[in-house]
Amino acid sequence: MGEGFFKSIQENPIIAAVNNEDNLEKAIESPSNIIFLLTGNIFNLSYMVNAIKNNDMDVYIHVDLIEGFSKDIVALDYINKNIKPDGIITTKNNLIRYAKNIGIFAIQRLFLLDSLSLETGIKSIKSMRPNAIELLPGVMPKVTKIIHEKTNVPVITGGLIMDKSDVINSLRAGAIGISTSKEDIWYM
Q: How many domains does the chain have?
């Protein structure tokens, strides 16, 4: 599981994060191989996923942010069987566990605010063993390195990535990819 994700991210570590449906076409036209879909609802999710897949790109749905679906395993089953993304992103441990049990590539999104959230996040990662982690904010190379070393789970950084130096610093710290909604970074 995840061979396509890791192959795509090796070819291009920049992930186009789409947080507004109006930016979907721009993301599809970008050189990114992967799109993190951070928007959508029960009515347009299938259309957006198909548009991405029809352009030979991988799509990972942030299930916590999709409107009209509950944040439970029934919704995850529906999304997996009917929408068919390449994987999911979530902050919810129960959805990470369930996704892995049914063979869905699972990215655990972590928001780090202080040393307590860092410790809790590391414990969660070690317990859940997601396929990858998305670490926010992504402009903390020291913390990226700590999480990568302590968990041995692939790290993606996102949030507050402003420029090329942020991308380089994240990659040097051990991140395998960078997710961003900043269009100019998609073209680096």
A: 1
